[in-house]
TrEMBL record:
This is Uncharacterized protein. It comes from the Bacteria. It comes from Prosthecobacter dejongeii.
Length: 124
């Protein structure tokens, strides 16, 4: 009986961690989709589209950014935006999303608006 309870406890703990990792990957997917959609809208509407970085881009976890010239990730400042140009390019930005389970870093390509670098770190 004790062994069964122990196995059940380990399985429950593993499932909770797995759910957190899924939530983290879902946040990254949302940011990637938002970036591609914003670039597409900028080109189609022929106007600059901006995303408010301080608002967290609609994610549930914590969002940090690293722009060209920044050495480390930092919290977005008030009024800081990510611009998508009607010429079909966006500002090169690295985004770090984190929650209680881990973090994902995404590096966005200015020509495609797609994440070209993705690093996932999950806490053990």
């Amino acid at each position: 009986m004790a062994i069964a309870v122990l196995i059940l406890g380990v399985a429950t703990f593993s499932m909770a961690g797995l759910q957190g990792e899924v939530k983290l990957k879902r946040m990254a997917s949302q940011v990637e989709s938002l970036a591609r959609e914003s670039l597409l809208q900028a080109v189609m509407k022929q106007r600059v589209i901006t995303l408010d970085l301080q608002g967290g881009l609609g994610t549930e976890g914590r969002l940090q950014v690293r722009r060209v010239g920044d050495k480390t990730f930092r919290q977005p400042v008030r009024g800081e935006v990510w611009e998508f140009s009607p010429s079909g390019i966006c500002e090169p930005v690295d985004v770090r999303l984190s929650n209680e389970v881990g973090e994902i870093e995404l590096g966005f390509d200015p020509l495609t608006g797609c994440a070209v670098r993705k690093e996932v770190r999950v806490k053990s």
